[in-house]
């Protein structure tokens, strides 16, 4: 379950920001999760709760924002919404589409004390 290591990374980011911005408690974390990031939201929620226990984010709410997939054709440069990572380009039919959105995960915002 790689969601555990993903949540460990989120907690590291939160702790780094706490030092930089001088806050002591996190109430809510908004996390953008790309459609192709391979993170399972239900697993992320469980792992986040386990990882943050006893930390400055203990009891914090995790709000997950889905980021849809978007691709760019390497052959014709068309950009389009993607539902599957290995779809062909709807314009020219070429494969080898570059994912330009929806492949990452990032901490978008924190609610802190």
Question: Strand share of the residues?
Answer: 25-35%
The amount of helix comes to: 25-40%
Low-confidence stretches: none
Q: At the first level of CATH, what is the class?
A: Alpha Beta
The assigned structural class equals: alpha+beta
Write the CATH fold name.
hypothetical protein PF0899 fold
Judging from the principal axes of the Cα atoms, what is the shape? elongated
Largest sheet: 3 strands, mixed
**What CATH architecture label applies?**
2-Layer Sandwich
**Integer-rounded radius of gyration:** 17 Å
* Number of helices, where a helix is a run of at least 4 consecutive DSSP H or I residues: 2
| SSE string | HEHEEEEE
Q: Mean pLDDT, rounded to whole units?
A: 95
- Please tell me the total number of domains: 1
Record the strand order, biggest sheet. Answer: 2-1-6
Count the beta strands.
6
End-to-end Cα distance: 31 Å
Question: Can you give a write-up of this model?
Answer:
With 113 residues, this protein is α+β, with helices and mostly antiparallel strands. The chain is 27% helix and 32% strand. It has a single domain, classed as hypothetical protein PF0899 fold. The protein has 2 helices and 6 strands. Helix 1 crosses helix 2 (41-52). The radius of gyration is 17 Å and the shape is elongated. The mean pLDDT is 95.
């Amino acid at each position: 379950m790689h969601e555990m290591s993903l949540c460990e990374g989120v907690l590291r980011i939160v702790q780094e920001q706490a030092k930089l911005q001088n806050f002591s408690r996190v109430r809510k974390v908004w996390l953008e999760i790309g459609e192709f990031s391979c993170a399972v939201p239900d697993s992320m929620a469980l792992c986040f709760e386990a990882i943050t226990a006893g930390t400055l984010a203990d009891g914090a709410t995790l709000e997950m924002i889905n980021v849809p997939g978007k691709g760019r054709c390497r052959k014709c440069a068309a950009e389009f919404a993607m539902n599957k990572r290995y779809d062909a380009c709807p314009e020219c039919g070429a494969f080898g589409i570059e994912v330009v959105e929806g492949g990452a995960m990032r901490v978008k915002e924190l609610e802190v004390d």
